[in-house]
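hiii so my PI (J.) wants the whole complex modelled not just the main chain, which honestly fair. so below is everything: two entries, each one labled with what it is. i double checked the lines twice but i was tired so who knows lol
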Amino acid sequence: GEDVEQSLFLSVREGDSSVINCTYTDSSSTYLYWYKQEPGAGLQLLTYIFSNMDMKQDQRLTVLLNKKDKHLSLRIADTQTGDSAIYFCADHRNTDKLIFGTGTRLQVFP
Amino acid sequence: DAGVTQSPTHLIKTRGQQVTLRCSPKSGHDTVSWYQQALGQGPQFIFQYYEEEERQRGNFPDRFSGHQFPNYSSELNVNALLLGDSALYLCASSFEGVSGFGPGTRLTVL
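here's the output for the full assembly
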């Protein structure tokens, strides 16, 4: 199947870490992406990981990939109110087709 | 170097009308994909163009058609608009991997 699944909602306190989870079904995925979408806006590419990697760190963002379980996570360290948005994971298939999850709404409260 | 651009940004149509949306890819990108994002959902793949031909297609009716020009820019056409076609339409361009998205065209069908 083509399913990519995410939890719908996450609420964290400012300064804490956020962890957003994603599961996918296709073992032929080449890249896995994380996008951020703010209200009324388009998609902003946050980071991506090649399918042959286990971890990628980029400033406050850490991506972990468990290929055996087909599980991807995005950790945001020191979460700020400006991080409040919807986060989408996307599974990149051959020929650049992306399959998106339903999105996780991250709410950061002071 | 401009990224992916789309026009128009907003559009209002009535049921039964036809609409054309436009996308200019990032410089050097030869593949253009179109996605539909309904309110509260993740983007859904409509179709992809490469070398001026439709290379792959998602689960969308024939009312959705497209075109790619020699300069790699692309159009998405939707005929016989339905209320359910109201959505944010996103264009992504890519070259051998990572995709970049345009800001989207928000289509409202009344």
